[in-house]
Design goal:
Oligomer: single chain
Number of strands: 11
Helix content: 25-40%
Mean pLDDT: 87
Radius of gyration: 20 Å
Number of helices: 11
Low-confidence stretches: 314-347
Strand order of the largest sheet: 1-2-3-5-8-9-10-11
Structural class: alpha/beta
Shape: globular
Distance between the termini: 30 Å
């Protein structure tokens, strides 16, 4: 199983020197994915409900700071050689369709084919209004049409499009992305429209496990949602096996978190619990695990990494043994990663 991690878009760890060191070292240690979130502005008053917290409060509202996602990935591309560069996720209606297609193609060319586009329709009405983009209420239709535009621009020699929101013809769109037929599209979201979007346009389903409206916090719940995705894919005339699965989770070094009605929250608990969860996710078809290690400062992040090493790969049990053959993750690399952070080389 491939292991990835999110990179900060705000705060002390998003300073250029720290972000560069973090990206380089993660790449050296074999992280398969480096992911960056997306916000362009943070409204001072947010009434929209954030879908991934129990209270609905957006955790980034207090800061107001956010680096541009594509600029950060360009920066990270120059600092790394192996890790895939993932937008986690891009709020597709926030930028023009042709502009986004060009940004993705450019990073794919400059990174020599390492770009992955994670996509979502967005949740914050106030940000839509500030950006002057198509209406928040149209976001689903806009997202679907823009994905069609992307594929048209990336793959067709003489692209033209006549849609509800986008029209163009008689243009050149070069260079094309390095990856054939195009950079992978990971569709985020857990709702029925997100599953339908995955079946129609996605190479990978990329859910977050903490949505209280669509909880994927146990293997049983996750597997049931995967089964529903398979049904929708079949309805769309697509082989469900052609859709990959990457599971995104916050990891905060917690003991067993009990769920209402009993049971344990996925990826919490003892070392044995964590190992069994990773194995169960792999058996459910998950090929990648994206972890958001929690911590507002370096020492807190260090603690999470160290705890994940102890619980997820103790002793001779390594991530590569839990995951797929040939994985570059092993216990020595994780230990080296923790040591790197502890030595304070990221400040």
């Amino acid at each position: 199983m491939d292991i990835g991690m999110t990179l900060p878009g705000r705060g002390p760890l998003a300073e250029p020197e720290s972000l560069g060191q973090l990206a380089r070292r993660a790449d050296e240690l074999g992280f398969a994915y480096l992911a960056v979130p997306d916000h362009i502005v943070v409204p001072r008053t947010i009434d929209s409900r954030y879908p991934y917290s129990a209270t609905g409060a957006f955790p980034g509202s207090a800061s107001g700071s956010c680096l541009d996602q594509f600029s950060v990935l360009s920066f990270v591309a120059a600092m790394t050689r192996q890790a895939r560069l993932v937008t986690s996720v891009t709020v597709i209606p926030h930028r023009g369709a042709v502009e986004q297609a060009k940004l993705v193609a450019t990073i794919d060319v400059l990174s020599q084919g390492r770009m992955t586009l994670g996509v979502g329709a967005g949740w914050m009405r106030e940000e839509f209004e500030a950006l002057g983009v198509p209406s928040f209420d149209q976001r689903g239709r806009v997202t679907d049409e823009y994905l069609e535009v992307f594929k048209c621009l990336w793959t067709e020699e003489d692209p033209e499009f006549d849609g509800e929101f986008v029209q163009f013809r008689n243009i050149s769109f070069l260079p094309k992305p390095v990856q054939d037929p195009h950079p992978p599209i990971w569709v985020g979201g857990e709702s029925a429209p997100a599953l339908r979007r995955t079946a129609r346009y996605g190479d990978t389903w990329y859910p977050i496990g903490s949505n209280p409206h669509f909880p994927l916090d146990t293997i049983e719940r996750f597997s049931a949602r995967v089964a529903r995705l398979g049904e929708i894919a079949s309805e769309e005339g697509r082989d469900p096996a052609s859709i990959s699965l990457v599971y995104c989770a916050t990891w905060a070094n917690e003991g067993a978190v009990k769920l209402e009605g009993g049971g344990r929250h996925l990826l919490t608990g003892s070392a044995q619990d964590l190992q069994e969860d990773i194995t169960a996710l792999r058996n459910a078809g998950v090929v990648g695990l994206m972890l958001n290690f929690q911590g507002g400062h370096v020492s807190a992040v260090v603690g999470c990494h160290a705890a994940f090493r102890r619980r997820g790969a103790p002793g001779s049990l390594t991530i590569s043994e839990i995951g797929s053959p040939g994985s570059t993750w092993d216990g020595r690399r994780i230990t080296s990663w923790v040591g790197f952070l502890r030595r304070g080389r990221i400040v």
